[in-house]
Amino acid sequence: MKNITKVFKNFSRFFVLVLIFGFITIGSIGGCNNNNSGSNNQGGSDNGDGLGAILMNIFDGGQFGVDYSWTSISRCRNNRDIKMDGCDVNAAFKTNPSAPMPACNGSLNPFCTLDECVACYEIDMEQMKTVDATLLRLYSPNYSVTDAASKQGVKVVVGTENGTISDLASDPSFAATYLKGQFGPPYITPLEPHIKDGTIVGIILGNEVNGSFDCTPCSPTLVGTAATNLRAALNKITGGSNVKIATTLVGIPTSPTTPTAEEYCNATDIDAVGFDLYCPDKGQSPPGVTIVCTGKNIPAGCNTPPECVDVSITEWYENNTPTACLGKSFMAETGYTTGNTSNPGSNDKSLYSDLTTMLNTYKTWACTNQIQSFYFEWFDEDETNISAPNKFFGIYEWTTTAATQNYPTSKYQDTVSNLFNCP
């Protein structure tokens, strides 16, 4: 207030008091921007001069969300084939909920109709609500998951395949087809119903598009063109103008690395850019060729919690986020793996306390700086045919049983709802 009183020292005492009262009132509105706050850009408060203070939440649904990857989806699938992404339905099933899904007979966990698929996923959505996790990210569209989220009041950010970016950019008319869905061939999951009911609050174009997955890489120009065509189609749908369009990157690429994060943040019609940051070896910095650390000093030289957050993640975010990305960036993935290096394919339960420390330290930083964040991930990855220890980032353990059976054990050792609320 010192600078303010200097400016206005010649004004009447009454006017100064009015000003002081006004600033105190503004400063007291709202609270920490947690998952019980208002919609995008509403509610919450400035937690100081944090990185995210320019913008409260990019996506409606809360400050903290969770990544619900293909392995989470696979808990509800019509057979145990690891190649399947889980229960999903084509457009025809929408009008016939009891129509059987293909290859369902003989399944160990048979979810053979649309109704059964949705009911299975609702178990996870109900669990999320009990811990205040009301925002999830899908890496590709899945009607059954999104419908379950809709029934339980959970908001969804839907990802596209990287290859879809080229399709959206090259053909303006494809965006409308992509949103409406198509029976096929090829089959395209309809998004429009859950855009209209407000469940889908964001669409993320691709995943780690500066990497080498199907785009090698997807350039900022290509991503921007896809976003422009997608925005035009969204604006023709009820509620579509409220859906944010984003993309995600490996780390925060800065010059001389190209393309840079700044270029993606400046891409046409991109509302936000997400960064994937994990715990690298000491001395390594994202987005270089990094080794994701597993547990304490494995491999040698890894930062341990909370160093992992203070040095490897938040310091990098604070020092390298370009001005163009301030107010439109979010943490798309961060987490801590508890994979057992001596017994691949299993958890090292002694590391659960490290996972808890890392996530708590990160959450405190994100609350202070108002960074919307997605934890990677809800479940460990399905251990079937997977032995790498870095597959164990889940807040919950993986189980081969279906979601309708006993819920998996939480690896996070505090009350899970702490992860999704600021103090």
Give the low-pLDDT segments: 1-50, 79-85, 90-97, 105-109
Strand order of the largest sheet: 1-2-3-4-5-6-7-8
Number of helices, counting only DSSP H or I runs of 4 residues or more: 12
Classify the helix fraction into a percent range. Answer: 25-40%
The average pLDDT score comes to: 77
CATH class: Alpha Beta
Number-wise, the strands total 8
Q: Which structural class is indicated by helix and strand composition?
A: alpha/beta
The fourth-level CATH homologous superfamily is Glycosidases
CATH fold-level assignment: TIM Barrel
Shape type: globular
Task: Indicate the topology.
Elements: H1 2-7, H2 13-27, E1 64-67, H3 70-73, H4 114-130, E2 135-138, H5 143-152, E3 155-159, H6 162-170, H7 174-180, H8 192-196, E4 200-205, H9 220-234, E5 244-250, H10 261-265, E6 272-276, H11 307-320, E7 329-334, H12 352-369, E8 373-375
Parallel strand pairs: 1-2, 1-8, 2-3, 3-4, 4-5, 5-6, 6-7, 7-8
Helix pairs in contact: 4-5, 6-9, 7-9, 11-12
